TrEMBL record:
Keywords: Membrane, Transmembrane, Transmembrane helix. It comes from Psychroflexus salinarum. It comes from the Bacteria. It is found in: Membrane. It holds the Pfam family DoxX_2. This is DoxX family protein. The keyword Transmembrane applies.
Length: 119
């Protein structure tokens, strides 16, 4: 359970601040332009990252189903991000974080799933 707690905190903090950056960081604006994505896509990405971060925390502290769904959403988001990185031909170092976070969230989703009460 401590591994799940550490991962949820790490992932939540990471996504929360990255998501806020999508709204407020000029550097992030330029990155999304480089990705070939629109301002609305940047804002949606930020929204889903903040929502995912809060969902993971809510899932850990209140309802595992919420955490499971948040982790699945973040897996999808990071898989799409990895695809964008491959499409624009970013190198391994630039592309790896999205793949890494997709895999971390996959592990977290399985851990949340194991907490479901099946009765």
């Amino acid at each position: 359970m401590i591994v799940l707690q550490i991962l949820v905190l790490f992932i939540s903090i990471s996504f929360f601040f990255y998501g806020l950056g999508c709204f407020f960081s000029p550097k992030m604006y330029k990155e999304f332009e480089r990705f070939g994505l629109s301002p609305i896509q940047r804002k949606l990405t930020g929204f889903f990252q903040v929502a995912g971060a809060l969902g993971l925390l809510g899932g850990y502290y209140f309802m595992p189903l919420v955490g499971f769904l948040a982790a699945i959403g973040l897996i999808l988001l990071m898989s799409l991000g990895f695809g964008v990185r491959l499409k624009i031909k970013d190198n391994f170092v630039q592309s790896f974080p999205s793949l890494f976070f997709a895999l971390l969230n996959l592990f977290v989703a399985f851990r949340f799933y194991s907490l479901f009460e099946l009765y």
